[in-house]
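Structure, all two chains, one model.
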Amino acid sequence: MANLSALQIARYEYNPKLPSVLRNNPDEVVLEFGKATEAVADQAELKELFKNTYGKPEALFVKGKNPDVKKEIRVGVILSGGQAPGGHNVIAGLYDGIKAGNKKSTLIGFKNGPSGLIENDFVEIDDKFMDAYRNTGGFDMIGSGRTKIETPEQYAASMATAEKQNLDAIVIVGGDDSNTNAALLAETFLANGKKTRVIGCPKTIDGDLKNEQIETSFGFDTACKTYSELIGNIERDANSAKKYWHFIKLMGRSASHIALECALQTQPNICLISEEVEAKKMTLKQITNDIADAIAKRAENKENFGVILIPEGLVEFIPEMKSLIAELNDKMAQNEAEFNKLETFADKNAWLKANLTASSYETFSALPEGIAAQFLADRDPHGNVQVSRIETEKLLATMVERELKVRKENGKYCGKFSSYTHFFGYEGRCAFPSNFDADYCYSLGYTAFMLIASGVTGYLSSVRNLTKPADKWTAGGIPLTMMMNMEQRHGTKKPVIRKALVELDGKPFKEFASHRDEWKIKTSYTFPGAIQYFGPSEVCDQTTKTIKLERE
Amino acid sequence: MANLSALQIARYEYNPKLPSVLRNNPDEVVLEFGKATEAVADQAELKELFKNTYGKPEALFVKGKNPDVKKEIRVGVILSGGQAPGGHNVIAGLYDGIKAGNKKSTLIGFKNGPSGLIENDFVEIDDKFMDAYRNTGGFDMIGSGRTKIETPEQYAASMATAEKQNLDAIVIVGGDDSNTNAALLAETFLANGKKTRVIGCPKTIDGDLKNEQIETSFGFDTACKTYSELIGNIERDANSAKKYWHFIKLMGRSASHIALECALQTQPNICLISEEVEAKKMTLKQITNDIADAIAKRAENKENFGVILIPEGLVEFIPEMKSLIAELNDKMAQNEAEFNKLETFADKNAWLKANLTASSYETFSALPEGIAAQFLADRDPHGNVQVSRIETEKLLATMVERELKVRKENGKYCGKFSSYTHFFGYEGRCAFPSNFDADYCYSLGYTAFMLIASGVTGYLSSVRNLTKPADKWTAGGIPLTMMMNMEQRHGTKKPVIRKALVELDGKPFKEFASHRDEWKIKTSYTFPGAIQYFGPSEVCDQTTKTIKLERE
């Protein structure tokens, strides 16, 4: 790197905090096992699939003697899926643990995600290389990727690499899918009599890898704080200029945890929650009307401005849009060659009129043309509608503008409406990790080493009690099978770790719901500002509202 | 405010730094005057327009006796134009100065910009009110607005308010236009024998209110740091995911200082500078080709990702686009009723084909339809094309994608191209001011009081030597007429403060130009991270690269 920023240089000096138990010499810490566990559902099927790794006990590190820790080992690490702040610190904690065990032990990084394991594409990590990435954001140290290890050939290649590299363990840093993959890989190695153990680490800014055992996935804290900084700045701008409504889309395709957390941090006028939209079967028209109601009400108070948060995946949770997308995917796939010949939007529109069901065409034709075109233009390599490319924030702004125009003509709206749209996602995935994420990730990595040194496989690195200061945190391992069930994926039943959606009877949503009517009408903005790394503890070390509400 | 963030509470405790000379008791500081000044151009005309205020000397505060400072006074303050971080601290410095002079003195804030003065809409500022806004972003304390005081009626109303309020002075916080307005108001008050003095303060995130006398306008530092945080995060994401080109538009309609400063802070692959595009008469095609060249070159190195910065005003600096916009404005205004009847894009397109010159229609028809529609749809109340609503970032991404498709067909491009677009503006205008802006603004406000207490009018509050620590800063006043010349505005010649554009032979641009060929091809990103308020001085107190290059 040609030119390091002052912050990056300063962050190199930061010493991430470990749970107290891990501050002992590593050979003075042992795993204490609890009772055998069961999967959350489909126990019999999972037991059959994970013959060697199913039902292991939860485990917690406590003081005790573990001389095995000092053995020389060789470990590989993989960053999988989308970036999340703190990934480099997982590697740092793992590296420092390995070296604390035995200076001659080795850590290699597989490059660009799971494909690095399949292709034996790797880099050996040494002090100098590691030090350049401590406490930094991004996954650029070794790259990431979305390849899934699925086919027999991929499993065979993975085993071949592990054997060639003489790996004692592989650590996979990823979300629900990647950790499911970790469980399958652990099982495969054991079933084939290989020594390589597999440990997972819970990563995702989306916050949907969370359950009884996992208090939060790393990166959620930093990403939400970065988005909240920007939302707060925009709220302050809205409240100063007093003339714009800002429609802000936030990452979170399956779950709305990010939008909800940002709403708790910034108190916007409106925050849509996909899970609620689905549960209440809200139509696009209803959502539009609700927003227009709030705008009209604020206009009566001469407040022609506001801020609305929208989760990225929203359109997939609106029943008629979900049907439309499914039908578009089917029809466009079935008639790919024919459809791809159509050049203009008018031609495509005519084709859809003839080929979609009446109700889906009605939904489609009610969309603003610019947005409707996005459903057809930006398809993925399988020909499917790319939901992440649909500008839901513009869709809603346009629908609301239309609705307000009608109301104005009917004398039911007296304000001025002008909007701006934003999408925040890439802005937060690679921020410098907050102190919380820096500490949490380092602890996860260090714990992963301790699990390896304790001889277990198919476990998730687990650090808990996270609402307390780091010295009060606990460290241990969760058997990955414990968090799994069977789900339909692309037509076949597969073992997966359950995604955690926003629970409408959970404390974070209830806290939001108890305030939102007030926030909607009365300007109640909170301005979190930029993430701070060096200031007073109440500014620098507090984690998310979500975890506080859930765990305190 | 219902719920203050931890950062906001912590920032209340920050004591902004003043230049050493202003740390004396206010009655122990006097203005030392230099020689009479001249305007930068059109001296005779300006002397005629500013009979009472033209040609005053520059002035600097030094130690000395000034018992006048203790007089009880009544002052009004106005925030004018777009928000910039630090506006509240200008008010805080002014307030604290006034109260240090005489506890019985009063500061009132005119609400929502200059219209508050015209309409005598105001709020009296007391300790409690002031304390709620110290070191915070935004202009929400008293609001802002874009009304210009232009007509004889507006001047009369302003004088009536000043008289009714018994104002000794008005402080106008604004950009080039607002400070021109301050100069005219100062002249008007004097010419009419009124006692009210007028002092300006240099505000604008755009950085274009800058000259021999003004080292920088406030807000530029914080806004650029906020945008650079986001750009750095996106660069890190691009370098981790290795599959997207990010096209990022940044505020800066007339001048490209923001884009240039952000480029110096983050070292992106490409940063367009409007002033260079204009000077070199670059066409859209040329710009597209240049970007495509860089993308193709990086693809050869298997780096199918990158970051491109684009100043908001770019399209107005591309010669054929500038002509197109001018022609569209003319034609649509001349035929407003007829044009407004056209409903579909196809109808409008046909009309333009018949009514535009051939060259302008050629330019128009080469635009992607979605962008072309923005030229026609989002017009301002005068029917003009709203340049700030044109998604230049999407325009360039689409043109580049087309060009790369052609090159691929011709075997001249071997990469994969996928893009995301962003626009950063509202995200940075209301951030918590950096320590630099907090100190600078507080000093500007305090200096404004000292100028008032020294009896001058038509001056700009001036704090200089800004690349040094605050105790080395100087404070004084610049006669506003000194920075003015005459320019054509809407068909008539008017006195205005010259806007500072990016100088292609200035040090900041030359620094950028000396590195950009390397940055274009070789990934050289720098990650500034979030603004820090509490950490080591090299992280928290450094100001912009632009001012360092210009003044050190």
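The mean pLDDT of chain A is 96.
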